[in-house]
Structures are given as structure tokens and as C-alpha cells.
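User: I'm putting together a teaching handout on how multi-component assemblies are represented. Below are the sequence lines for each component of a complex, exactly as they appear in our records. Could you produce the 3D structure of the whole assembly as C-alpha cells, so the students can see both representations side by side? Please keep the chain order the same as the input.
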Amino acid sequence: MAEAGTSQVGSAAGEASAGPAADVETSASTDAGIAASGDRRPVKIIGIVCNWCSYAGADTAGVGRFKQPANIRLVRVPCTGRIDPLFALKAFEKGADGVLISGCHPGDCHYSEGNYYARRKFELLERMIHHLGIPKERFRWTWVSASEGQRWQQVVTEFVAGVEKLGPRKARAL
Amino acid sequence: MRIGVFVCHCGTNIAATVDVAEVAKMALGLKDVVHAEDIMYTCSEPGQAAIQKAINEKKLDRVVVAACSPHMHEMTFRRCCDVGGLNPYLFEMANIREHCSWIHTDIPVATDKAWDIIKMAVAKARQLEPLQPNEVEVNKDVLVIGGGVAGIQAALDLADSGLKVTIVEKQTTIGGVMAQLDKTFPTIDCSACILTPRMVDCAQHENIEVMAYSEIDKVSGYVGNFTVDIRKKAAMVDWTKCIGCEMCVEKCPAKAPDLFNVGLEPTKAIYIPFPQAVPKRAAIQVEHCRWFTQGKCRVCERVCPADAVDYEQKEEIVQKRFGAIVVATGLDVFPWEDYYHEYGSGHIKDVISGLQYERMLNASGPYGGHVHRLSNGEEPKTVVFIQCVGSRDDSVGRPYCSSVCCMYTAKQALLTKDHCGLDTEVYVFYIDIRATGKGYEEFVKRVQTEFGVKYVRGRVSKLYEEAGKVMVRASDTLLGEQVEIAADLVVLASGIMASEGAKELAQKLNISYDEFGFFKEGHPKLRPVETNTAGVFLAGACQAPKDIPATVAQASGTASKVIGLLANEKLKTSPMIAIVGQKDCVSCWKCIEVCPFSAPEKQEVRPDEFKSHVIETVCQGCGVCVATCPVNCISLKGFSTDAILDQIEEILVS
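Assistant: Of course. Below is the structure of the complete assembly, with chains in the same order as your input.
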């Protein structure tokens, strides 16, 4: 649990200005890690997306041939309301370098209100995740509709770039 | 467990970027995988036969197809498995096309990603269980939202097949935009001659109920069993008594904007939009009525021979049940005045919109069909049409083509010559002419050659008034020179937008819409009139701008889809729903609190002992209760927690 040991309760502004050098993981020892220091393996990101909006939005991006970095692996669920925050934490525990959650825009949920329940959970998770030693830049939740192929491309590209800036995680455990 | 993996080439769609033979070979090394092969077109007949053969010969109990998106062919392969003797819910799809080969170019990178995606699908397949769909009774009544030509066509087709139809229209009459048009292209048929008898058919059809001046308030339920709250707005006139004699309209002293005539001339505070209105009933615009604003008048009440005026009338909510819903909410015209300041923002009297010109041309319009300048009433000698106003223009946030303006402009140019004489100078400024329908190109050619309408390729940069004329400044991009025309009348081919309130309606119906508010079809080719919400269908311009022939064709297509759906006495429901492990249920009822569909109920398992139970036919399978349950005793079939976590673990640990 080397990462957690050095986690900061910093303000959002402090974290933003500190940049990668302040990444709590950089001081992690490698003994508990899955990768040696200096490793530049591609970052691996788990995306958990709802069937109706964001999965279909990623389809739309594909049909439109909107090129994206190849670091994301998508898990399809019926609704973001189905997502237990545990899924994101499990992914980090197993070594994911980033977790992206995406669903329907507020008001557009196929099941009327599933995304509102998701919003509460992930808003909370986003605020507390750095207490677990995971910089909040490694976690993002957002909305992408079925017709927003270009937005999906943008979300993926930006998120991957942010995670790449931090680099692969050097420790697996939370 | 015996899993078969089938990796699709999809021609070169996948195989050009993913080494499909290699990943198929690698798949054989996965635990439980006993068969793997790559297939040129897995969805084709030989492809499906190969799956069925392998199910049979290799005794497969799980099938994974790595191909396109499940939104494309999940149902296809489920059916294939079913026919091959495997429970269709023991099938899983790996999307290596939309999510991989189409968005990457580097072969090793794409192959590596495809391999991960396949491993995830296999991991999920291990967790699948055979499922059986339930059946629900079907309500055979149909709701049609919107009473324009799309809604009318769909309603008549449905009603003729014997189904009961309710048309809900927000205006006081059905007819929609088509009722406002003078003639229709490319035949120059009279719009009203086509439409108004169809409106009367709706009113008189024993299977159709027209609910005009009503809107959708709330929608709940699911395919086969929708419950809809319809808000009947207060017309301040008792429509069971009103006979449509227009006496009240004649005597009303208060003026009000006339939306039907696109604001050309005012109407009265109590109004009937046009003589052929269906139903032909009066309504009061209260914000313009003297009784409601000043507390005196009541002239309409005094003159009404039927004693129909009711100032105390309140809106009411009517609840109805339907098996299917057709959305046909049509279009609004782009409000060019708010965007095109270079065209005078609506302050130049002789610059009008295409729809206003329709009303001017129309014999039953405010001017009896007399084409004239609004500034001085004279007949114009020079008329200029400008195309793509609010279409194909990124600067006003409308990049799309409205699809009808080229043709309606050609029609209006012809009618101008017809009304004002062949010697009238008529110019059309265009970007490209899009005349793709049957007989359209020939029509435009005829307008140019036979009627001598001058087409100038170029955008108009500025309109301004000078010496009683509207000066049109533009560039002729074919000749490469500036042109300036002193026009008497300028008509703007204002584009099409989704109708007001489209987004809110989409949210009530849980259907998708694009950034412009047009509703999203299930798939442009495979499911063009369906939405992604079962039982909700689309017709007309609410889906995308389209002309009347395309609208009517789509409406009939929609009707046939609805008839097909409602031909079933019972509908199969998705078995991918929540189930409660009652042994662990602590009766906290959080699932009941969060369920958007009221699917969980308290079930008495022993005297005075209640546990949660999910009503199978009500559950829609969102899984909110699963993620909410504090003791994890609810599972979502097809999306179990193990199935999700195994996918994540598969690619991170290995």
C-alpha cells in the first residue's frame, strides 16, 4: 500500500498545478508493483459504459472512423445506474491505469433516472479517490449520447492523454 | 464448459486492421475454449451455418462472436444460436469493428486490443446462464403524437388495419405544416386538396380519436403496455358545443398574432386557424383576450349561438393506455430573424420567409393569393429567392441540409411567374441544387428553361433598403463577379428544425435525439422507423428533415411496423432482468425506492415475513436496484457482478 501512504489531502488547485511530479505514485516503491520503474508500457484503461448512450456513442465514433488511442477496453452495462463504484475500485486494484465511466446525459436516461443515481455515486467517488492513493486524473465520469461520436473521440483522447501524463501505475494494490 | 469463438473478417472491415486468423488461433489457448475459427462474413448464411455446425459437432455450450457492435447483430446471432439448438442467452458478442478496427490503423495495436476484447467476451460468456423470456399481454391501441401529414398517414393506415388510434395534436387543428402550404412540388398539386380530405378521414374514422389542443404530459410503462397522461389544454370554449361557425371570430374586438399565417396579418384573440380545420373549433388566446387581460368584453360569449364559450374552463389530464406509440412531431421553421442580421433581422418589410410566401400565395391565405410587396401593396416586378437560410451554415449552428428548400424554392419561383406574369424577373441564389427525388431534377430544369427563372450560384452577403427597393448584394461564383439586384420582394428559403419541445418529449419517451433535437432511429438501414425504445416508432420530419413524399412513405412504413408488433397477442419480454436472492434480503426496501418502474414488490414469503420480489414482466433490466442493494442480494441476469468483474480482471491480471 505504498501509494496510499503518501497520499495528499490537497486542494483541487494544488493538485492541478503540481503536475505529474506531485503524483502520489511517483514515490511508490516498486516492490509491490506490477511494473518496474522506467516502464513505458501503454496505459490500460477500463471504460464502463451504458448500453444506450455511451456504448452506442462509441459505435457512432467507429462508424464515423473517428480515430482514438487504443488504450481503452469497454465493459457494457445496461445503465450507469447498474455500476457499483466497487467496479471502478476493483479495476484499480487489479492494476488499471485509469477508469472512465460514461452514460446518458441528465434527462436522457433510457430508464428515466438511472444516470442520476450514478451521478451521485461517481461524484462522491471522484472526490474521495485520491484518499485511496489514486490521483483523481485517473478517474473520470461523463456523459456521451448515442449520436455524439465526435464527443466520444474527444473524451477518450483527452482522458488517455491525461492518464499517459501520469504514466502507468507502478503499484497494483489500492 | 465448452466455448466456441468465431472471429469475423467482415470482408476487410476488420481483417484489414486486425489479424483475425492470429487472434482466432490464440483464442484456442483460452480456458474452456474448445473451438475457434475465423470467418469471412459471420453474419452471412455460411457464417451462421458454421456456428450452428460447431454448436452441434463440438457440443458448444457458449458462443462468442467477435465482429461488429451488438447493436448491429446481437439479435442476429442470438437467433442463429437458437436455431442451432443453443439457448440464445448463452451468446456473447465482442465488438472488434466499431470499437477497434474502425478506429485504429496500426495492425499490432489493433490486434492486441481485439485480443483483449475477445478475452473479455469469453470471460463474460463463462458467467452466462440460459434464460427464458416471459410473455405479457399486449394493449392494441396506438398513440400517434403529432397530427401533421406524417401522423395523419400513420393513423389512417393503422386505423384501416383495425387498430384503435388516438392522435394527440398540440395545435387546435390537425394538418401540421402541410396545411400551411399552397402547392406541393414537383406536381404543383394543391396541398389542401391532398391533405384536407385526409384530415376529414381522420375525424370520421371509427377507429380514430383526434385529441387536438393536447400535449403529452407523462409516459410510463413499456412496449405493449404504455400508460400516457395527456394534457387537454383549456381552449376556453366547450368543444362539445362549438359548431365552428366563426361568429365569435368575426365579432371579437381583440387582435392576436396569427401563427398559422406566420404572423403576416393578425388574427383575433378567439380564433380558428383556417376554414378546413379539423376539428373546426374555436379557442381563445388568453394572453390577448380582453376579458382575461382587462376583465371586460365577453363579446364572444354573447354572440355564440351554441353557448360554447366557457371562461372558467380548466385544462385536464386524461390517462390512456397504449401498446405502441408513433412519434410524428414534425418540424419548426428556422427563426432566421434571430441569426441573419445581414438580411435585416426581419426589419425589412419586403424580406419574408418561404413559409410566409406560401401563405401569401395561398388563395385562402390572408391576401387571397395576391402576391404583393408588404411595404406598399404593389405587385413585385423583381423577386429574389435566397437558399440555405438556416441550412448548411455552420455560422448559425445548422450544418445540415434541410432537404426541401431547393425544391420548394423552385416551386415558389414557378408560382411567382404564374401569379405575377412571365415577365417578372425571378432570381434564385443557391449553393448547390439538390433535386434528388423522383421527377425533381426535371422540375427544376423546367423552372429554369420553360419559366425563365434565373439561377445564380452564390451566397447573398447583404440585403439593404435603398430607394424603395431591397438591394441584394451577392457574388456569382460561376462568373466570378459581384452582382447587385434591386428587388421588390425577397423570399428566404428558411430551413427546418426539430419542433419546439422535441427534446422534452424525447426525455418523456426515453428515446434518443441528436444535437439538433431530431429523434434518433434504431439504425439508419436496419431499423429506420424504430427507436431504441421498444414500442416507440418515428414518422416524418421529427427524425430528420424530409419532404412530403418521404414523410408519407416513412409514416406508412412505421404503421406497418406497428401493425406487425400488435399482431402478436402476447409479447416476449427480455429475460435480462433483476432477480432477488430472498434468502439474503433484509427487507430494507431500497430497491423499491430506487426502481424507476416499480418492479420490486413486497412479497409475503411466510406469514408476516416480507421479502423483496421483482415482478418479471415489469422489470426493464436497468440494474439500478442491483447497484443499490446493501447486501448484494439482487442480481441482473446477463449482467451479473461476476460477469462484469471477470471482464475487468481478465485483461488486467493476464
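A couple of points students might notice: Chain A has one domain: 5-166. Residues 5-166 of chain A form a domain with the Rossmann fold fold (CATH 3.40.50).
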